[in-house]
Write a structure and sequence with these properties.
single chain, about 400 residues, mainly alpha, two-stranded antiparallel ribbon
Length: about 400
């Protein structure tokens, strides 16, 4: 039997770091779910006009082409904070985390790849030749905050190896989502503005490499980079990732990346993402007939099939192929049903899925409303299925947790 193991437990420091991140994401995920529920209830209440008026109210200087609706400020502006944390986490994983080791990185990268490609193919098959074909990337994303909130609700004692896998899979998944947004959902590219955006990003990078952390210097540069990238035609949230990539991660708990992450992750998880969810999830369903009408749209059906079926098949199949070709065995006491449960959990696609839906079909369009229904139904279905599978294995997980103490 090979000594190479899938889902093996990491070092104590790595496991502790993952646990700390997931605790922060759990609180944020519960707020995200609460924000989405409030939005759905409000948008389907007799006061739905007030919700739409709030979401569609315009703020910002028109001379700078920043007279955006509040909903657009949430998706373009607040999500840049979320993607800055994603950039920090991506760099940390590739430079100092599990993704630095090719053997440990192989599993989450392969699983994330399978979990992106298969849902996209499922969606494309459902929408082949139809008007919703450009939404093929919507079911590719996994929402880590929503996923860990589900784990908290069902009170499962997930082993450290599976927790680390979930986090690193979501990190690689986010990288894929950002790449797709930048490459496939940029309508027109203004190279002059793009080149100008690289200047404040470069200055930001020079300052953080010199361990300068003054918000009076860094925040204006970040805002300028965001505004210039917005003017270039690339979705402005990409600025967050690029800025995050510039921050040094060496130095352990004293690194600048750790400092920024401790400072900004609570803002991202506790404010930025829940507020985005509040403004993005408020779809007026219109009762049972409206729900069935939305689900009759092949775009919504493709999203549900991609999230529930595509993610489960893609992540599980990629893991099985890695197991087959490398002769790696599952870690002790874990079984393939655990892999299936984690794959189902990966089908919870919310934040990035809603964002890609807006980019694909236009904010406020009829199909965008149907996309929201598909994302909500698919994510809830994936969450319920994952909860059933993982909760059934909780006795095994509790025994593993007791042995690790």
């Amino acid at each position: 039997m090979s000594s190479n193991r899938l889902f093996q437990r990491g070092s104590f420091l790595e496991s502790s770091r993952v646990a700390e991140i997931l605790r922060a994401e759990t609180a944020g995920g519960l707020l995200l779910i609460a924000g989405a529920i409030v939005a759905i209830v409000w948008a389907n209440s007799p006061w739905r006009d007030s919700y739409e008026a709030l979401r569609d109210a315009r703020l910002g200087p028109g001379a700078l082409h920043l007279d955006l609706t509040i909903g657009q400020w949430a998706s373009d502006g607040l999500l840049a904070i979320f993607f800055f944390v994603v950039g920090l986490e991506l760099k940390r994983e590739f430079v100092a985390g599990d993704l630095r080791d090719p053997r440990r990185a192989a599993l989450p990268i392969a699983a994330a790849f399978g979990g992106m490609v298969v849902p996209a193919l499922v969606y494309a098959a459902v929408n082949l030749g139809g008007p919703g074909a450009q939404g093929w990337a919507i079911p590719m994303a996994t929402d880590i905050a929503f996923a860990v909130a589900v784990l908290a609700v069902i009170s499962t004692h997930l082993p450290s190896g599976l927790r680390t896998f979930l986090l690193t899979l979501a990190v690689v998944d986010d990288l894929g989502g950002v790449s797709v947004i930048a490459i496939f959902y940029t309508d027109e590219l203004h190279l002059l503005w793009l080149g100008a955006a690289l200047v404040p990003i470069a200055i930001f990078g020079v300052l953080v490499q010199r361990r300068i952390r003054s918000p009076w210097l860094l925040v204006p540069l970040a805002v300028l980079a965001w505004g210039l990238l917005h003017a270039s035609g690339i979705h402005a949230t990409v600025a967050g990732v690029l800025l995050g990539f510039t921050v040094p991660v060496r130095g352990g708990s004293h690194s600048l990346a750790e400092h920024f992450e401790h400072l900004i992750r609570p803002i991202s998880a506790g404010f930025a993402v829940p507020v985005f969810a509040f403004f993005a999830a408020g779809v007026a369903i219109g009762g049972w007939s409206g729900l069935t009408g939305a689900l009759a749209d092949r775009a919504a059906l493709g999203i549900i099939a991609g999230l529930v079926l595509g993610k489960t098949v893609g992540i599980t199949a990629a893991t099985w192929l890695l197991h087959t070709f490398t002769q790696a065995e599952l870690d002790d006491e874990l079984a393939w049903i655990d892999v299936v449960g984690m794959a189902m959990l990966g089908g919870i696609g919310f934040t990035v899925s809603l964002l890609i839906g807006e980019l694909a079909f236009g904010h406020g369009s009829v199909r965008d409303e149907h996309v929201k229904v598909g994302v909500l139904v698919g994510s809830v279905a994936a969450a319920v299925l994952a909860a059933v599978v993982l909760r059934a294995r909780n006795r095994v997980y509790r025994r593993i947790a007791d042995e690790d103490r």
